[in-house]
Amino acid sequence: MKKYYYKKKLIGLKISKFPKGSIPHTGSKEAQEAVGVLTLKYKKGSYLKAHVHKDVYRVTDHLQEAFIVRRGKVRIDLYGPDKVFFKYIYLNEGELFLALDGGHAFHILKDCEIFEIKNGPYKADKVFI
């Protein structure tokens, strides 16, 4: 996992590899955490015990998004919360980027399919930079 910071603020996480087991890549340390990301890697025949999640009151006022490249390649331009560009990263097939804060733009480098997952409910709240 690689972390990206802008002025000491965690802006995003890139996950390229799967360690063994159930590994949380986000946690309660990120006060703004709205989207939790875990990787699951087990051998054939493993069993993960059935479970449900109890209702717990949760409040978020900050949108976070996870992008998973299923096919293709993209370049993501990263912007700080102040809308200032600070870095670009590449995502290849099978990689994930979790946008925790700031903004982003996409350059499609190869025909691609991307899963985008965000905390809801969905609101039309885009502000273009």
Could you give the topology of this structure?
Blueprint: E1 2-6, E2 9-15, E3 21-24, E4 38-41, E5 65-79, E6 85-92, E7 96-99, E8 103-118
Describe the protein in words:
The protein has 129 residues and is mostly beta strands. The protein is 0% helix and 49% strand. The chain contains no helices and 8 strands. The chain has strands at 2-6, 9-15, 21-24, 38-41, 65-79, 85-92, 96-99, 103-118. The strands form 2 sheets. Strands 1, 2, 5, 6, 7 and 8 form a 6-stranded antiparallel beta sheet that branches. A two-stranded antiparallel ribbon has the order 3-4. Strand 1 (2-6) and strand 2 (9-15) form a beta hairpin. The model has no long low-confidence stretch (mean pLDDT 86).
Features:
single chain; 129 residues; mainly beta; 6-stranded antiparallel β-sheet; two-stranded antiparallel ribbon; 8 strands; 49% strand
Task: Identify low-pLDDT runs.
Answer: none
Beta content comes to over 45%
Task: Measure the end-to-end span.
Answer: 28 Å
What is the overall pLDDT average? 86
**Shape category:** globular
Structural category is: mainly beta
How helix-rich are the residues, as a percent range?
under 10%
- Alpha carbon gyration radius: 16 Å
* Total number of beta strands: 8
Number of helices: 0
**Element order, helices and strands?**
EEEEEEEE
Q: What can be said about the biggest beta sheet?
A: 6 strands, antiparallel
Can you describe this structure in just a few lines?
This protein is 0% helix and 49% strand. It has 129 residues and is mainly β. Strands 1, 2, 5, 6, 7 and 8 form a six-stranded antiparallel beta sheet that branches.
